């Protein structure tokens, strides 16, 4: 598998890694069965994602997509972050091998899960803002997608 220089950089030197003690939104997606688990922590102040961190257990592409996702949503409003897509992640990383595109989907889901948690903590139904919100924050990428 050939990875872009950006993927390799974010894998070797990921940004925004670790816990965020004052996080007011936490989302976890993935499944140990498929091998990739992403946990995203956000600190929202005045409708803006002031800080964001992640912890990812998985392959290099999972770590790289988590890292770039944090960069892409930091400083954004919740509405802007909800418009964040896996396609934007793939573009920002100058592409991913087809077998690793599921990692970009997990990154998008982790962001949305953290925002959904923020809304729930504030007494707001996340489905009002997240059209594809199912309440299942532990989706797996599925069998046969290069998870490892």
Structure report:
This protein has 148 residues and is α+β, with helices and mostly antiparallel strands. The two termini are 13 Å apart. Mean pLDDT is 89; it is low at 136-148. A 3-stranded antiparallel beta sheet has the order 1-2-3. The protein is globular, with a radius of gyration of 14 Å. The chain contains 5 helices and 3 strands. Helices cover 37% and strands 18% of the residues. Helix 1 (5-12) crosses helix 2 (60-73) and helix 2 (60-73) crosses helix 5.
Q: What proportion of the residues form beta strands (DSSP E)?
A: 15-25%
Compute the average pLDDT. 89
Q: Name the structural class.
A: alpha+beta
**Whole-number radius of gyration?**
14 Å
**What's the helical proportion of residues?**
25-40%
Attribute tags:
148 residues, alpha+beta, 3-stranded antiparallel beta sheet, 5 helices, 18% strand, globular, disordered C terminus
SSE inventory with pairings:
Elements: H1 5-12, E1 25-31, E2 36-45, E3 48-57, H2 60-73, H3 78-82, H4 86-92, H5 101-121
Antiparallel strand pairs: 1-2, 2-3
Helix pairs in contact: 1-2, 2-5, 4-5
Provide a quick synopsis of the model.
The protein has 148 residues and is an alpha+beta fold. Helix content is 37%, strand content 18%.
